[in-house]
Amino acid sequence: MILIPILALLVGLAIGWFIKVPVSGLAGIYMGVGVVAGLDSVFGGIRSALEGKFRSDVFLTGFIANIVIAFFLAWFGDRIGVNVYFVAILVMGSRIFTNLSLIRRQMLTKWHDARERKRLEAELKAQQAESEGNAQQTAAT
Q1: pLDDT of 139 strictly over 70
Q2: Hey, where are the domains in the chain?
């Protein structure tokens, strides 16, 4: 299930890379806020997949809702003359950093657990080989 948010990120990056349409003015602000909202959802999806809690329906509805809310905040801020999109960028940017730190921690924990498991398995094999060697020596005498 971790592949869905990663695939969504790669598809979005590919579309942005190959379709070079300049976006400026208010549309650029709206697009920027939407991209940050989408990244927030993608990294949240990756984190939840690593935790074993990923649900595609929650991911898709959260992805769409985050983008719509971010666009609405940017639009509403323009209507009242306050740069509210800064708030959306700040909050979602903070969540991105939080999700990235949790993803890093999860991956490091899994890596350390795998190393520890391999070390314990090697110790167990060594103990088994030693006990088999002792049993053979005892049987030979």
Answers
A1: no
A2: 3-135
Higher model confidence: residue 140 or residue 10?
A: 10
User: Which pair of tokens denotes residue 16?
Assistant: 């942005």
Buried b / exposed e along 85-112 (16+ C-beta atoms within 10 A) = beebbeebeebbeebeebbeeeeeeeee
Residues 2/50, Cβ–Cβ less than 8 Å: yes
Enter the tokens of residue 62.
């959260």
Q: Is the pLDDT of residue 32 over 80?
A: yes
Both tokens of residue 135? 């049993």
Angle of helix 85-140 relative to helix 25-50, nearest 10 degrees, comes to: 20
Cα 66 to its chain centre, rounded Å, is: 16
Q: Who's near 54: CB < 8 A, 6+ residues apart?
A: 1, 2, 4, 5, 45, 48
Q: Are 59 and 2 in contact (CB under 8 A)?
A: no
- Angle at CA 54, nearest 5°, toward 16 and 9? 10
CB atoms < 10 A from the CB of 9, how many? Answer: 17
Separation between Cα atoms, residue 2 and residue 12, nearest integer Å = 16
Angle of CA points 51, 54, 55, to nearest 5°: 160
